[in-house]
Write a structure and sequence with these properties.
GO molecular function, one term: DNA binding
Largest sheet: 6 strands, antiparallel
Organism: Kineococcus aurantiacus
Number of helices: 12
Oligomer: single chain
Radius of gyration: 21 Å
Protein name: Transcriptional regulator with XRE-family HTH domain
Distance between the termini: 66 Å
CATH architecture of the largest domain: 2-Layer Sandwich
InterPro entries: Cro/C1-type_HTH, Lambda_DNA-bd_dom_sf, MLTR_LBD
Strand content: 5-15%
Helix content: 40-55%
């Protein structure tokens, strides 16, 4: 601290304190370090290993706010640590009174232990922040989507492709859009200074008559649960209970899909978990999930 800290040294310190188990990775024998490897951090943050190396060595000195945000999520930084990372990168930290896209460390550790379930983590503006492999297997992998398209409000009320889901989804609860609008109205009351939230509401309001109608009705509440049927191309229809949980002390929401134990839908979820949602004949499907040959 006497010599001054830079972003590279801070990243190394934060990386060294994390166990692979904290981020849902297996601990293999003969690790030379107890913390995360650079390769593991790069994978978690969606960055190249070379870029992470250059950041830590001080050769990449102007990361974008989006890069710092993804690193903060991957490293499970607290809000003060996240703000410190922004300042070390020469950036202004996110302002108070705006929607946070930081996934709390406790939620990330919980998510690492819920890896077998389809779980997505959303911000208060319903932007998808992170998800389990089982979520990608059931819904379709959103990793290839631009960040602005990973938003449930745009997916429900927008035009064209559903965005968050690669396959058609039928909602048994016809009140889900109204609940989503009500939840969004409540978020706007909590974050009136968030320009991104205001822009999202104005954008969807321009393009969706249904959204405008629901806004005029003026109901206030939170989107908490639903029953959905996903038309999966590999296993057919999968009907799940979809529950929305809010982490205490945080505005992030965990959306969990589940089915009754022993039911055909639970068996389909387990098949998708094992295969990653790929057909049984796909060469990349794990051998344990492929049909036996004579």
């Amino acid at each position: 601290m006497v010599d001054g800290e830079n972003l590279g040294s801070a990243l190394r310190r934060w990386r060294d304190r994390l166990s692979p188990l904290d981020v849902g990775l297996p601990v293999r024998a003969r690790r030379r370090t107890a913390g995360l490897r650079r390769e593991e951090l790069a994978d978690l943050a969606g960055l190249s290993v070379d870029y992470v190396v250059r950041l830590e060595q001080g050769r990449a000195t102007t990361p974008s706010a989006q890069v710092v945000a993804t690193l903060a999520r991957a490293l499970q930084l607290s809000p003060p640590e996240r703000d410190h990372a922004y300042r070390l990168a020469g950036l202004l930290p996110p302002a108070d009174g705006v929607v946070s896209h930081l996934v709390p460390a406790g939620v990330q550790r919980m998510l690492a232990r819920l890896v077998d379930l389809p779980v997505g983590v959303f911000a208060a503006d319903w932007t998808l922040l992170t998800w389990t492999p089982s979520w990608a297997a059931l819904i379709g992998d959103p990793a290839g989507l631009p960040v602005e398209q990973r938003n449930l409000v745009r997916a429900v009320f927008g035009r064209g492709h559903a965005g968050l889901s690669s396959w058609p989804v039928r909602h048994a609860d016809a009140g889900m859009p109204a609940a989503l609008v009500s939840d969004l109205r409540e978020a706007l009351a909590r974050y009136p200074r968030d320009a991104g939230l205001t822009a999202l509401i104005e954008e969807v309001g321009r393009t969706s008559p249904e959204f405008r109608r629901l806004c005029r009705e003026g109901t206030v509440g939170r989107h908490v649960s639903a029953r959905k049927t996903i038309e999966h191309p590999v296993v057919g229809d999968v009907t799940c209970d979809c529950d929305v949980l809010t982490a205490p002390g945080s505005d992030v929401r965990l959306v969990l899909y589940s089915a009754a134990a022993g039911s055909p839908d639970a068996e389909k979820l387990e098949f998708l978990r094992v295969t990653g949602g790929r057909p049984a004949g796909d060469p990349s499907t794990p051998a344990a999930a492929r049909p036996a040959t004579s």
